[in-house]
Structure prediction request, 211 residues.
Amino acid sequence: MKKYKVYLFDFDGTLFDTRPALQMVFKKSYEHEGVMVSDDQCQTFSREPINIGYQALIGGSEEQFWEWVRVINYYLNSEESVSLSLLFPDTKETHQRLSKMEGIQYGIVTSNNIPHCKEIYHYHHIDISHMSVLVGNHECVIPKPDPAPIQTALKMLNYDGDLHDVVYIGDALNDVLAAKNAGVDGLLLDRDNIYQDSGFPLIHSLLEIFD
Prediction:
């Protein structure tokens, strides 16, 4: 596979299996609003901007939505959420190998918040001091598939090279669409073989980027 100058990764579902944690977060957050949601709904919520699911199920004013976001963040940042976030078997080796590659930069671009991501890395004893950039929902409030989160990362890196020397890797269509919209290469991580007909370049393990 092509060697890139910048490797950017989604977080949830790409580097960590956060499905158990997010199920807990969404179920308790919606229960706070008097709504019960299923595991399948939680999976959908995890792959789209949170306002979409909220408006479909709850509606309400913008003020009510942001009040609910505070509830979500309470559960997201809890110790239970961190402990329920599972390490994919290829994540640690991917970080180790990238940290030893000369002439490249790498980091994460996520809709999650960076302090929470750091807590999960710490919980799993993974050193991220070699990461060049960390972009979360505080660094860029505009969600994927808008190109803004990726563009924010490149701006933070002071990157002015060829955009096709940058790759963004994620497990959802919004990730590769964001890459396309930003003009960088995108790789769709298809761990569960659900995107065969997506039309996007696929990998089934993070370690394939080193082939």
